[in-house]
Amino acid sequence: MIIKNADSKDHELVRLETLLNAAEGTSKKLIANELRMMKAGIKGEQESAYYIDFRLKNSKNTAVIHDLRLNHEGRVAQIDHLLIHCSHRFYVLESKHFSHGIKINEQGEFNRWNDWQKKFEGMPSPIEQNKRHALVLKEVLESLGYKNPPIESFILISPQARIDRPRNAKLPEIVKADQFLTTLEKDLIAANSGVGGFINLVSSAFGDQPEVIAKKLVKKHRPISIDYESKFNIQPDVEPTHAKSEEPQLNGHVCKSCGKDEVVFQYY
Q1: Pick from 77, 159, 218, 258: CA 20 to 30 A from residue 208's CA?
Q2: CA 164 to CA 174: how far, in whole Å?
Q3: 1: buried, middle or exposed (CB in 10 Å: 19+, 13-18, 0-12)?
Q4: Whether this model's pTM surpasses 0.85
Q5: Of the given ranges (54-68, 139-153, 201-215), which has the lowest mean pLDDT?
Q6: Which has the closest alpha carbon to 217: 77, 75, 8?
Q7: Quick one: pLDDT at residue 230?
Q8: Is 225 helix (H, G, I), strand (E, B) or coil?
Q9: What pLDDT score does 242 carry?
């Protein structure tokens, strides 16, 4: 069941497009890159959401939250997709859209292809990023009374992207988006001693149904509004100061016939 869909990013896209048209020099390049990354992120999240929703939209055993931002004691987790299974296993999913794929070296360092500069460039590890998100989620769940929640972390890659993995590690947490649901079923089978995925387990660590837990988390969703003008050091347009009108100010009582405010009340 879908508890929350992704928040619309249309407003942010319009703001960036407006700033891009008005910016010059370095600021223009930075805004263009920000816009490009945002569009790629939206595309990746939408692609992953499609595969998730296709299988789980009508599921009674798995609650789905798209685009959940948690702020707990000064630490933030921006979770692209969160699945809560009836066995009370939590799956934190990070979507990544790479047009030409990624390379991961023997040290676990990630590199993505920059199609503008025609070369690979380093990037933060999405695995470590998602681990931090999972840690914040764990703390939030424990604050709600759910102790020691089992949380799994996966990185969903576009089905069209190429993944060059290191020889010394298979990195099972990196999965093509269209193959994730199969991976999820296998994980549930392994976790529940051979019990098939997506069935209603009798034993419950928390007592609450996935839908109940999901709705509690959604109440803690804290979307953010970025001040792009400050981020890119752009001065906002200042509206011109208009001269005061020389027209007389009405005192609040106006004659219905002539429209003037020179009204005299008489009593008989």
Answers
A1: 77
A2: 11
A3: middle
A4: no
A5: 201-215
A6: 77
A7: 85
A8: coil
A9: 45
Task: For strands 62-72 and 75-85, give the pairing.
Answer: antiparallel
What is the per-residue pLDDT across 94-132, written as a single tens digit (0 to 9) for each? 998 887 788 999 888 999 877 767 778 888 999 999 999
The token pair that represents 75 in the structure block: 């630490």
Helix (H) or strand (E) holding 71: strand 62-72
Measuring CA to CA, how many Å separate 94 from each of 106, 176, 198, 238, 260?
A: 22, 11, 21, 40, 66
Q: What are the tokens at 194?
A: 């051979």
CA distance 244 to 238: 18
How do strand 90-96 and strand 151-157 relate by DSSP bridges?
A: parallel
Residue 176: Cβ-neighbour burial (10 angstroms; 0-12, 13-18, 19+): middle
Q: Position 191: which residue type?
A: A
Q: Which two tokens stand for residue 11?
A: 């407003």
Residues 6 or more apart from 238 whose CB is under 8 A from it? none
Q: Which residue has the tokens 């869909």?
A: 5
Q: What DSSP line would sit under 143-186, residue for residue?
A: HTT--S--EEEEEEE-TTS-EE--TT---TTEEEGGGHHHHHHH
Q: Which two tokens stand for residue 213?
A: 């837990």
Average model confidence (pLDDT) across the chain: 83
